[in-house]
Amino acid sequence: MKAGERLKRFFWPTTRCVLCGGGSDRRHPGLCAECYGEILARRERLCFCGRCGRFYPGTFRECPHCYMEPRRFPKNGLFAAVPYEDAAAALVKKVKYGGRRDLVFAMARLFFRLSEIDGDFDVVTAVPLHGKKQKQRGFNQSEDLARAIAEGMDLPFERLLRRVVDTPSQTTLPYRQRLVNVKGAFVVPEPAKAAGRRILIVDDVVTTGATSLECVRALKEAGAERAAVGAFAAGRSQV
Fold first, then answer.
1. Is residue 10 part of a domain?
2. What pTM did the predictor assign?
3. What CATH number has the domain bearing residue 211?
């Protein structure tokens, strides 16, 4: 651990809530009971559609968005814990841009509590960053989260995917252009490690799902029996 990271943890340890500065709850270090409760309360009012990767109001019996366009993920192909908004979004940004890598354990606990993950897996992997971007950031937040989730599931973590194309940011692109943007961006360097296995691919945030679908495609082409995506957060339906 670098000296700067040690100092950061010393002056802002997980005994304090990173969102409001209050006392952290020992059950989920880094978050106070109030901020943790806010995340839970928002999630309880919503349902998650694993077919299109969006949260929608619990007043609807089925996802309204999936009536509007084709479903993208197969059944039990995508799991997410919380909508990417407010406290949950702030938590992701603290990890991703603030270097608070220790907070992935709080994210993993929320994932296990709220994602309704279904099925057995053999191994956990992560959506990789391109080498250039990982060198700039110094770490891959999705890999940190994947390692914490793998530990909680008592499964091995393995780097099964490699990002070979440094794609432009997906943030401002429409869905179809995002699909084109990431096409061929991921490869499986050692297909034998994926063949016949049930693989959980972890990402911090899923928006349109274009990146996740490309990772699933690469692993399935390498012979994986199953490739599903587990995300901490996902978007919310605007329908």
1. no
2. 0.86
3. 3.40.50.2020
